[in-house]
Amino acid sequence: MKTVCFLLAxxxxxxxxxxxxxxxxxxxxxxxxxxxxxxxxxxxxxxESKTAPTDFPKQLRLAFVYSSLLNGxxxxxxxxxxxxxxxxxxxxxxxxxxxxxxxxxAAAILSGIYGNEMGYSPMKGMMLGSKSSSLAEKATVLxxxxxxxxxVYANSKFYTPAAFGGDMKEAVKALExxxxxxxxxxxxxxxxxxxxxxxxxxxxxxxxxxxxAKAIASYEKALTVEPHFEWIKKALLPSARxxxxxx
Length: 247
Hints:
Blueprint: H1 21-32, H2 35-50, H3 56-75, H4 79-99, H5 104-120, H6 125-142, H7 147-159, H8 168-184, H9 193-208, H10 212-225, H11 230-246
């Protein structure tokens, strides 16, 4: 899987802890890397959000689904698919930030979208890097209890070069906090693609800091939730085990 800045988000704007049809669509889209399923998830959420155009939580939920689709495009990868949706995603999220400047999750979503843009076009780092990092930092102050916020902050520390503020140890801490917040929340972990992805990237961060045992444990935890998570099963976990044996 291409190493790009992934946006991971909590189930913002959900009044129920049950998985919704959109959640299930996104979960399968993530596992299958399916453009059609991401599109169906977005269209379903658009229809729901259209019924309440001034309802902030529902519109924030739509921004989250948009950003999740953008993330999914990068795992395929499909830049044309990304380009078809990125402007609408940014426009909506910026509008939400203007409406509610204290929404850390809205700030985190925009930070992640900028990260996705840099993933496809590294030269945009000159223009978007500081914006993305600043939004991620701001989000941790505004909503420190949000798994989304810590996931995006971790992305910033994971992918930013050390010379510009990146720090893999800080990424580990942020990912550990993200996973812990998911596990303490009343959101279901089964069929939660964001939780799985957080575990996958926590494992990678452990490996980059030389802690292969913890990497293996993180990957194995993910497989207890989703035994068919092929990225971990066939790539990340075998790599971690091989590295552990070599040390």
